[in-house]
Amino acid sequence: MAIRFPAADQPAAPAESRDACSAPGRRTGPYRPQTSGKVERFNRTLLDEWAYARPYRSDIERREAFAGRLHSYNHHRGHTALAGKPPASRVPT
């Protein structure tokens, strides 16, 4: 018996996700828990606050919502490591 998930529940391929936010592809170094932990936390935040935050009718609809979510994450969502400020506040203008 095979379990099939609706297309909207299938995660986008890493390259598609990376291309959606125009981020360069990078790999974490082996045996680097500091880096791996940051990546894992970011992935979990994306799942909780974007991918599974609400039901999407299709994978396309989910992908279209990604740009807005990424902007919100970087410009409006406070981060505890930055004393409640968003990451964009650290970038000189």
Explain how this protein is built.
The chain has 93 residues and is mostly helical. The chain has a domain at 35-93. Helices cover 46% and strands 0% of the residues. The protein has helices spanning 14-20, 33-51, 59-75. The longest helix has 19 residues, at 33-51. The chain is globular, with a radius of gyration of 15 Å. It comes from Streptomyces spororaveus.
Helical content, roughly? 40-55%
Shape: globular
**Individual helix count:** 3
CA radius of gyration is 15 Å
The main sheet comes to:
none
Q: How far from one another are the termini?
A: 56 Å
Low-confidence segments, given as residue ranges, are none
* Percentage of residues in strands: under 5%
Note the run of SSEs as H and E: HHH
Count of distinct strands: 0
Structural class: mainly alpha
Q: Quote the average pLDDT.
A: 79
Protein name: Integrase catalytic domain-containing protein
Domain Integrase catalytic: 30-93
Organism: Streptomyces spororaveus
Region (Disordered): 1-36
What structural keywords apply?
93 residues; mainly alpha; globular; RNaseH-like_sf; Integrase_cat-core; RNaseH_sf
Helix and strand topology:
Elements: H1 14-20, H2 33-51, H3 59-75
Concise overview:
By secondary structure, this protein is mostly helical. Helices cover 46% and strands 0% of the residues. The protein has helices at residues 14-20, 33-51, 59-75.
